[in-house]
Design brief:
The two termini are 26 Å apart. Helix content is 4%, strand content 46%. It is built from 3 helices and 33 strands. The longest helix has 7 residues. The protein has 373 residues and is mainly beta. About 5% of the residues have low confidence. A hairpin with a 4-residue loop joins strand 18 and strand 19.
Length: 373
């Protein structure tokens, strides 16, 4: 079974993004911890130190077992780290192997580094060399052998950090960006948490990686038929069959309609995680989003306006126009007197006027989704 690639520091701080001058044309970023002290980096997956370059104490690591990345599972993945100081370099040796979570590198200031950090890059494939990106550039990138690797080519094998690692909240407690050059990793990039939830760095920066718990109390109740958990939407192989009447722990909702005409959700049942076809005619979500009340599950109005009310079937607070989005706090399992289930939501009309109340949950004209989808 493939290992998920886990980011290996307690704080993920992008101190210089891939468009920084010395990174230009590559997918390299500089990472550092929360302080100016020298912090360790732990192996994201089982790997072997296959090459040590004296210049800037660059280490090249190659995986020793299949690796699951946020973009897919691969038999061969390598990565490099640069800038460790000589004192820490002496702790390691060529051909040393590391289990996932073992310390394999340290921040440092060798070369042109102005503060403790790690210059890091990941790539799919078997390591071949570290070469200039062009004959006229001094910037380097990993060159790999992609033999027998499908879906990746020489233009896509070098990975941006969010493509290369999952964030495990038990390892990484916060994600921040102090990149003074630009906010490359603030809004544009989507990080994937270990449980599969995908969120922008903005939300991780604001709420911390505790965001992984937002759906821990939310379930999908099967009320009309069984559901198949699959390895991927539509055509993925079946992992397990969830019987009618059971409840699936919801990890995320997908906003997009798949080729079969359904939206798909990702969830967990009896220790198995997978995708399931979200058919609101035979199932419904129930429970609160979590204890944080964060903006991670939204309701998209796709067919009509929605009235926010003070209570279920209560007096109206405001009508929200079709096309808008509401923040979901809770799905109520009980059917109200009007024949509908209701959801408790938040809606910010502007910075000063904010509403919290209940809406009639009609899946024909609205759908929930998780941020990042």
């Amino acid at each position: 079974m493939a290992q998920k690639s886990i980011f290996g520091m307690s704080t993920l701080n992008i101190s210089a993004g891939h468009q920084y001058s010395s990174h230009s044309g590559t997918t390299v970023v500089d990472i550092s911890g929360a302080s100016s002290n020298i912090e360790s980096f732990k192996a994201p997956f089982d790997c072997k130190l296959i090459k040590i370059l004296d210049k800037n104490n660059t280490f090249i690591f190659q995986n020793t077992s299949p690796v699951q990345l946020p973009i897919g599972t691969f038999d061969k993945v390598c990565f490099r780290c640069t800038h460790m100081n000589n004192d820490q370099k002496a702790l390691f040796s060529i051909n040393q192997t590391f289990n996932q979570g073992d310390v394999c590198y340290y921040e440092g200031t060798t070369g042109a580094a102005t503060g403790n950090h790690i210059h890091i890059e990941f790539a799919v494939g078997t390591f071949v060399s570290l070469d200039r990106i062009t004959s006229s550039s001094t910037n380097l990138h990993l060159v790999t052998d992609l033999t027998n690797i499908s879906g990746i080519n020489n233009n896509s094998c070098n990975l941006y950090l969010p493509q290369a690692v999952y964030i495990d909240p038990t390892v990484t407690s916060s994600v921040i960006s102090t990149d003074s050059n630009s906010n490359y990793y603030t809004n544009q990039y989507v990080w994937t948490l270990k449980n599969g939830l995908r969120v922008t760095n903005y939300y991780l920066s604001y709420y911390g990686t505790g965001i992984t718990n937002v759906a821990k109390n939310m379930k999908m109740v099967l009320t009309g038929s069984a559901a198949r958990l699959r390895t991927s939407p539509v055509s993925g192989s079946q992992i397990t069959l969830v019987p009618n009447g059971a409840k699936i722990d919801i990890i995320r909702f997908n906003s997009n309609v798949a080729s079969d005409g359904y939206r798909w959700a990702y969830g967990s049942y009896n220790g198995n995680e997978g995708y399931f076809q979200y058919d609101p005619t035979v199932m419904h979500p129930e429970g609160s989003v979590g204890t944080l009340n964060v903006t991670t599950v939204k309701m998209k109005l796709t067919g009509s306006a929605a009235r926010i009310r003070v209570s279920q079937v209560g007096s109206e607070l405001i009508t929200v126009s079709n096309g808008n989005e509401l923040i979901v706090d809770e799905f109520n399992d009980a059917i109200a007197s009007d024949g509908y289930r209701w959801a408790r939501v938040k809606y910010d009309l502007n910075d000063n006027i904010k509403y919290t109340g209940w809406i009639q949950y009609d899946p024909e004209v609205m759908h929930p989704y998780s941020i990042g989808y």
